[in-house]
Amino acid sequence: MSKIMLLPAAALVLGLAACNPYNPADRALGGAAIGAGAGAATGAAIGGGPGAAVGAGVGAGLGAATGVLTTPVPPPPPYYR
User: Fold this and answer.
1) Residue 44: Cβ within 10 Å count
2) 45 to 39, 51, 57, 63: CA distances (angstroms)
3) Does residue 75 sit in helix, strand or coil?
4) Which of these, 26, 37, 58, 65, could form a disulfide with 19 (CB 3.0-4.6 Å)?
5) How does residue 66 score in pLDDT terms, banded at 50, 70 and 90?
6) Reported confidence tier of residue 7, pLDDT bands at 50, 70, 90
7) Selection from 66, 72, 59, 78 nearest residue 20 by Cα
């Protein structure tokens, strides 16, 4: 089972590595993906089948909101002479 999950996990990591940290939309997508995965795992462990769906939905919403709210302000442009 763990070998089956290796490819989707690698694709998720590579997809999140391409995100721009100063773009709120990229941070929302990354936060939603991480939140959905964590929420589904927690919901499945606690509540079974329907709990995984509820956990994924709640985790995706909270992860997206957190990603947008924690977007850093871009640094000022460098000073050139």
Assistant:
1) 16
2) 10, 8, 15, 19
3) coil
4) 26
5) very high
6) confident
7) 72
23: tokens are 């773009």
- Cα(70)–Cα(54) distance, integer angstroms: 24
Q: Residues 32, 66: contact at Cβ < 8 Å?
A: no
Where do runs of H (alpha helix) occur along 18-81?
24-47, 49-69
In this structure, the dihedral spanned by the alpha carbons of residues 49, 11, 13 and 18, taken in order and rounded to 10 degrees, is: -130
Residue 1 token pair:
């089972």
Mean per-residue pLDDT, 38-56: 88
**Encoding tokens for residue 30?**
């990354």
Q: Is the pTM of this model over 0.85?
A: no
